[in-house]
Automatic annotation (TrEMBL):
SUPFAM superfamilies: FliG. It is found in: Bacterial flagellum basal body; Cell membrane. It is a peripheral membrane protein. Pfam families: FliG_C, FliG_M, FliG_N. Residues 12-115 form the Flagellar motor switch protein FliG N-terminal domain. This is Flagellar motor switch protein FliG. Residues 124-197 form the Flagellar motor switch protein FliG middle domain. Keywords: Bacterial flagellum, Cell membrane, Cell projection, Chemotaxis, Cilium, Flagellar rotation, Flagellum, Membrane.
């Protein structure tokens, strides 16, 4: 008979032995219920280990229970939000080193994925299109295993009368045979395979166009927007509403302008102000100290004539700084009604 020594460490035990100790700790009734859910091969291995353990120290019990709770928590985090989400929460709860160990153990034991995992990862609209033709009971069962917010997105797209039927079935499901779940899961995976094989990635759109236009020269940008105004006026208006240009710096709050100017290279600022309107130049000067303004004016005079392409490049560098600070929440770019401020 094997004897689990008091000084043994949980990390030195293999997975089957840990499972055996965990079963012993839970007691015969609970362990019997768990055993019913295991594959035959695991039942044999765990049973063999249980039969060959005649003593389990309190220390080992506590370590294995703690490990089980940590791994259960980690697995739930992964299912809810993915591996990065799990790492973030586990780092806060357990510390970086222990969090890494738990994630590594989960990867090593390769636990069976939660039912309908493919549905949890699927695009909501694609999944809705697939489920619209399914029976309410099937849809309800699948939604029970999905993230609540994603399940809600799908449920609202069904006709009102079917929404109620699905909701009622979700509320009355208490248990389902693993065999039934497995059978439905295989059917859904088979039907969804066509979506996976032909999966498309969201690309393009106004935001993509704006990102590109913010990286091209000002002359090119103006030409494209002017042409869009003739051929696609609605698109042109949408682009202009989101497109931030160097001249739009006057729309920033005073404090935000000063943050930007602290981040901007002095040589770029000197070059960017060549040929701009007096109004824009004065606006920049108003956000600098008197000494900085004097230095800037001297540098501009010393610079002399500059190529338009060089000026546009310098302006674009400043726009890039502004957009970066906006994304970081350091400054605020007004974008029409969508970003209205509530006092």
């Amino acid at each position: 008979m094997a004897d689990i020594k008091e000084e043994s460490k949980s990390s030195k035990l293999d997975g089957i032995k840990k499972a055996a100790i965990f079963m012993i700790t839970l007691g015969p009734e609970t362990s019997a219920q768990i055993m019913k859910q295991l594959p035959d091969s695991y039942i044999q291995k765990v049973s063999y280990e249980i039969a060959n353990i005649d003593h389990v120290s309190q220390k080992d019990r506590e370590m294995i229970i703690d490990e089980f709770l940590e791994m259960s928590q980690a697995r739930e985090y992964i299912l809810d939000g993915g591996i990065d989400y799990a790492k973030t929460l586990l780092n806060k709860a357990l510390g970086t080193q222990r969090a890494k160990e738990v994630i590594d153990m989960l990867n090593q034991i390769q636990l069976r994925e939660r039912p309908f995992n493919i549905a949890r990862k699927a695009d909501p609209q694609q999944l809705t299109n697939l489920l619209l033709g399914e029976q309410s009971q099937t849809v309800a069962l699948i939604l029970c295993y999905m993230q609540p917010d994603k399940a809600a997105q799908i449920l609202v797209q069904f006709p009102p009368e079917k929404q109620t039927d699905i909701a009622e079935r979700i509320g009355t499901i208490s248990s389902t045979s693993p065999a039934v779940i497995e059978r439905i899961e295989k059917v859904i995976e088979s039907k969804f395979s066509s979506f996976v094989e032909n999966e498309t990635e969201s690309v393009g759109g106004v935001n993509t166009l704006v990102d590109i236009l913010n990286q091209v020269g000002r002359t090119t940008e103006k030409a494209i927007v002017a042409e869009l105004e003739q051929t696609q006026p609605a698109l042109a208006e949408e682009v202009k509403a989101s497109l931030f240009t160097f001249e739009d710096i006057v729309s920033l709050q005073k404090a935000d302008v000063q943050k930007v100017l602290r981040e901007v290279n002095q040589d770029d600022l000197v070059l960017a102000l060549k040929g701009v309107s007096d109004e824009l130049r004065d606006f920049i000067f108003d956000n600098l100290s008197s000494r900085a303004v004097e230095t800037l004016k001297e540098d501009m005079q010393f610079l002399g004539p500059a190529r338009l392409s060089a000026v546009e490049e310098a302006q674009q560098k400043i726009v890039t700084v502004i957009r970066r600070l906006d994304e970081q929440g350091e400054v605020y770019i007004m974008r029409g009604e969508q970003d209205a401020i509530v006092e």
